[in-house]
Amino acid sequence: MSLLEIRDLEVSFNTPDGVVRAVRGLSFDLDRGKTLAIVGESGSGKSVSTQSLTGLSRGAHVTGSATFDGIDLLTADEHQLRGIRGARIGMIFQDPLSSLHPYYRVGWQIVEMIRAHDRSVSKRAARDRAAQLLSMVGIPHAKDRIGDFPHQFSGGMRQRVMIAMAMSVEPDLLIADEPTTALDVTVQAQVLAVMRKLQDEMGTAIILITHDLGVVAEMSDEIVVMYAGQVMERASRRDLFYRHHHPYTEGLLASLPAQGGKGTRLSPIKGTPPSSINPPDRCPFAPRCPYAFDKCWRENPLPRVVFGDPSHQSACWLSTDEATRREERARMVASKLSAEEPA
Ligand SMILES: Nc1ncnc2c1ncn2[C@@H]1O[C@H](COP(=O)(O)OP(=O)(O)O)[C@@H](O)[C@H]1O
Ligand code: SF4
Ligand SMILES: [Mg+2]
User: How far apart are the C-alpha atoms of 165 and 100, rounded to whole Å?
Assistant: First the structure.
């Protein structure tokens, strides 16, 4: 049994404008020590899907199932969830100040975190552990900085402090929601490396949420691509980058910067994502998809196995045969090129 098993997760909100279908049919498994990335544009349902697992999506109507180490998260009561959040499922966000209290010294905050989950740890031991963790995440002179306040750290260093705090109780699962979005590219890579190092030492499973496929290129074992609340494609990292099936994945890859993350975006996908309010019954990507044909406008494709590999799924009506799909892609590239040629 996997550490986390999500099946057909649906999350919706009733709003004055109609029902927001924020997540529609998300399924995945995550094993201990592994990293699953959830990638998609802003508003695609990444945050809501993980918040709903830990009871943090207020006012949401949630169906499906979510089993964490044998515990059904969707039927657990607030008391059970409080025991799981932080202790067994750690969370970090884009803005460290949403987790770090601005008026308390960072060392004290980590000590409190450790002792809140295990009162038998002495203050002194917790303090030593806090210093050790700060040093593990690469804070220089960690012992001396334990008494500093969050604002005394740079953005990247604050993010490291937040990782140290979340990992101080050795959670089984860490949910990292856009942890590096606010940071510049070099610092992003450092912060991800720190997460990976602690993951290796503690065997933590990680859900890494990001809008930037480039961020997950090195870090994830499996990638889920979301669009308008739905899973477009789910595959191992290797297959997603080198053997993808879905046109949306193709668009995301084509829009990655040329090299090293510093280049300009090559060709961003034209158009904007649809509203999640009362979505029509068709492929949500159809208005932006260069491959769209009749069926795409009539029926919404469910994720199905592609290329004969059960671990690879795509929600798209295009051929599931690899050779045929490759031909379709080649034809598309050729027709784009001829359209760009001067007459
Ligand atoms: N409390 C809420 N009430 C109504 N709609 C919400 C609420 N929270 C999120 N949504 C909607 O759900 C969709 C998914 O949001 P979110 O998961 O935050 O996207 P992402 O993290 O991918 O940027 C969006 O359309 C958003 O507006
Ligand atoms: S189902 Fe059709 S519109 Fe949707 S991604 Fe596939 S080809 Fe494009
Ligand atoms: Mg989000």
Answer: 9
